[in-house]
């Protein structure tokens, strides 16, 4: 093959891959309709899934997904259980899934403002916020920005503090102003086609959802060229936001529960979970021995227990001092079992 023919062939293949990338991005978006509804907000159109009904005894839950995914990630294992006795709101963070990316969309407070507006349009005025990974950082900002709305917080594998290591190479390359576009339209497009499904299954190995996660959560949406750029922007611009944010964690005075794994290699427990638990007043920390980053899929019961603990703490805080004192006194005395009580009634 002559050098000229080689260059022509390489260029033709490059053009073909770029055209495939544009075609595939449109195909992935139109393959299925959005699972929820679209809300018009000041930060643009926002997609949110609403589950369950208001039954009066439990506050609604707002669930925030992490990077390279969308609201369906939180709708897979946790939302079906939580929505049995309460309302659940699961937005796609701005720029992800079917939500538009507003100007300065990498700013967490901008993302929170749009999602809060959508939740309020569904009647959510006071709620518990549950966030995983990047979504946990979003939950922290939400609690600080709108303390009148947030009654409690559950953080799963949270990223919360500046970290001493950088971001992965493909994140930096994807955001490069000179050749990032070409990288996203070629390398990422090919990886999305041939590698990401296998990578997801490997990352979730041992989880019940591993075999169907890719299809059920529409993971391919996160590997569209523009959404991949916004994911990279979120991650690369997170560090600078956490520096001032970490100083405000002691201001959070609502019940907070953290669930973190000892084997999480994405968000290291000593740097984030442990440190955060020591800085937030009255914060609980549940350490999952051997747990990784996707605890909401590998150990969903631990995450649901954390929500239940927040519910119990809110219930205790709502009781009057006299009621709390009476409960404490009666707890000292042994309770008659149901069997002994029925026997006495029978006699």
TrEMBL record:
UniProt KW Transport keyword: no
Residue ranges of domain AB hydrolase-1 in the record: 61-306
Keyword hit for Ligase: no
GO function terms (MF aspect): hydrolase activity
TM region positions: 6-23
InterPro entries: AB_hydrolase_1 (IPR000073), AB_hydrolase_fold (IPR029058), AB_hydrolase_sf (IPR050266), Epox_hydrolase-like (IPR000639)
Superkingdom as given in the UniProt entry: Bacteria
Coiled coil feature spans: none
Keyword vocabulary terms for this entry: Hydrolase, Membrane, Transmembrane, Transmembrane helix
Alphabetized PANTHER family for the sequence: MONOACYLGLYCEROL LIPASE (PTHR43798)
Protein name from the UniProt record: Alpha/beta hydrolase
Naturally occurring in which organism (per UniProt): Parvularcula mediterranea
């Amino acid at each position: 093959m002559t050098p000229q023919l080689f260059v022509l062939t390489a260029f033709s293949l490059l053009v073909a891959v770029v055209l495939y990338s544009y075609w595939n991005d449109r195909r992935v978006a139109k393959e299925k309709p959005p699972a929820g509804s679209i809300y018009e907000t000041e930060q643009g159109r926002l997609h949110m899934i609403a589950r369950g009904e208001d039954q009066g005894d439990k506050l609604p839950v707002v669930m925030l997904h992490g990077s390279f995914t969308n609201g369906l990630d939180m709708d897979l294992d946790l939302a079906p259980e939580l929505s049995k006795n309460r309302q659940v709101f699961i937005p796609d963070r701005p720029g992800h899934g079917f939500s538009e990316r507003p100007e300065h969309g990498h700013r967490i407070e901008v993302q929170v403002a749009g999602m809060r507006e959508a939740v309020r349009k569904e009647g959510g005025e006071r709620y518990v916020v549950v966030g995983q990974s990047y979504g946990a950082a979003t939950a922290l900002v939400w609690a600080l920005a709108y303390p009148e709305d947030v009654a409690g917080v559950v953080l799963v594998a949270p990223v919360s503090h500046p970290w001493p290591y950088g971001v992965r190479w493909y994140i930096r390359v994807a955001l490069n102003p000179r050749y990032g576009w070409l990288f996203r339209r070629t390398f990422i497009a090919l990886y999305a086609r041939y590698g990401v499904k296998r990578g997801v299954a490997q990352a979730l190995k041992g989880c019940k959802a591993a075999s169907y996660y890719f299809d059920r959560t529409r993971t391919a949406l996160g590997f569209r060229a523009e959404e991949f750029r916004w994911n990279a922007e979120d991650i690369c611009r997170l560090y600078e936001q956490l520096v001032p944010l970490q100083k405000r964690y002691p201001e959070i005075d609502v019940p907070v529960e953290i669930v973190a794994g000892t084997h999480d290699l994405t968000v290291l427990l000593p740097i984030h979970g442990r440190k955060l638990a020591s800085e937030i007043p009255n914060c609980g920390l549940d350490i999952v021995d051997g747990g990784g980053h996707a605890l909401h899929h590998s150990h969903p019961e631990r995450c649901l227990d954390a929500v239940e603990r927040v519910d119990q703490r809110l219930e205790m805080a709502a009781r009057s001092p006299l009621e709390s004192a009476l409960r404490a006194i009666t707890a000292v005395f042994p309770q008659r079992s149901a069997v002994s009580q029925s026997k006495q009634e029978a006699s």
